[in-house]
Design a protein that fits this description.
This protein is α/β, with parallel strands linked by helices. It has one domain. 44% of the residues lie in helices and 10% in strands. The strands form three sheets. It has a four-stranded mixed sheet, with helices on one face. The protein has a two-stranded antiparallel sheet with strand order 2-3. Helix 1 packs across helix 3, helix 3 crosses helix 5 and helix 5 packs parallel to helix 8. The two termini are 30 Å apart. About 16% of the residues have low confidence.
Length: 279
């Protein structure tokens, strides 16, 4: 993904060493499958950084590795692309104004209104504060432990969390959460699957709108990442027989297909998984 020259979002808060840190750049970044001890994308079950330049400001005394700094700045640039895309899509397709989320980039552990966050919970979006949370070590885990390497795969992770914020702004997240509270566990899981597949489709819309930044193989990286975090694949990797009634994110095939649907259509209306007879 070609990010050279791309601005860095100001909507990023950095937290180091389990503390509440400052902002970066002058202005200041549970669909968990416990069998793998990694959360994927919306770990919470309601289911930016530099202003053109400058150095990351962190909590005093907390060490910042080169990898952490690189991941933070990468995240800030990717977040900026989501801001540009969804501002445009909201205006042109929905006749609405988009308000971007904040991205909390942390190392170790941190707290959110939706609960604690760590490398084990993985990235998630918390609708209570309208912020996405990302441990900087997750990109390495994504590549080394999940077999989904590449910078565009990492960007897809961020785009997916932002997609949950889009759902929240459109009023979809609270409606689904209310329906799940009145449903059985199996029914609630099925609703969550539709929510996650919609987020994959919305991520595809983001990807379609940043084609000018994509390099050879980037689309394959995103599709591979979508397949690697399918519930059936993860359960097989854990030595289990896939149990569809326990799925919370969809199969590998479904995740890749809905991402592709968003990418090919570029249309929010094509991402309505709740109106689909078959996922």
């Amino acid at each position: 993904m070609r990010l050279r020259g791309i601005r860095r979002s100001k909507n990023v808060e950095v937290r180091r060493g389990g503390g509440r840190a400052g902002k970066a750049g002058g202005v200041g970044i549970v669909g968990l499958l416990a069998v793998l001890a990694i959360g994927y994308f919306t770990g919470i079950d309601v289911s930016p950084l530099l202003n053109g330049g400058g150095a990351v400001q962190t909590q005093q005394g907390a060490p910042v590795s080169q990898a952490d700094d690189k991941a933070t700045q990468f995240s800030a640039q990717v977040l900026a692309t989501t801001e540009d895309v969804w501002t445009k899509v909201f205006r042109e397709q929905l006749d609405r104004t988009y308000t971007p989320p904040n991205l909390i980039v942390f190392s170790g552990v941190t707290q959110s209104p939706c609960g604690g966050a760590s490398g084990a919970t993985g990235p998630f979006y918390c609708p209570a504060d309208q912020k996405a949370y990302l441990d900087t070590s997750f990109f390495t885990m994504l590549s080394q432990r999940m077999g989904a390497g590449g910078d565009f795969a990492a960007a897809y992770v961020i785009a997916h969390e932002v997609a949950h914020h889009v759902q929240n702004q459109l009023g979809i997240l609270p409606k689904v959460d209310a329906a799940r509270r009145q449903s059985s566990k199996v029914e609630a899981n099925a609703l969550t699957v539709r929510l996650e597949l919609m987020a994959d489709c919305l991520s595809g819309i983001w990807a379609a709108n940043v084609q000018g930044l994509m390099e050879r193989g980037d689309l394959d990286e995103a599709l591979n990442a979508a397949r690697k975090i399918g519930d059936d694949h993860l359960q097989r990797q854990a030595g289990q027989v896939p149990q569809p009634h326990t799925f919370t994110h969809g199969t590998s095939e479904q995740r890749a297909r809905w991402f592709g649907r968003g990418y090919d259509s570029g249309n929010v209306g094509q991402c309505d998984t709740f109106a689909a007879n078959q996922l």
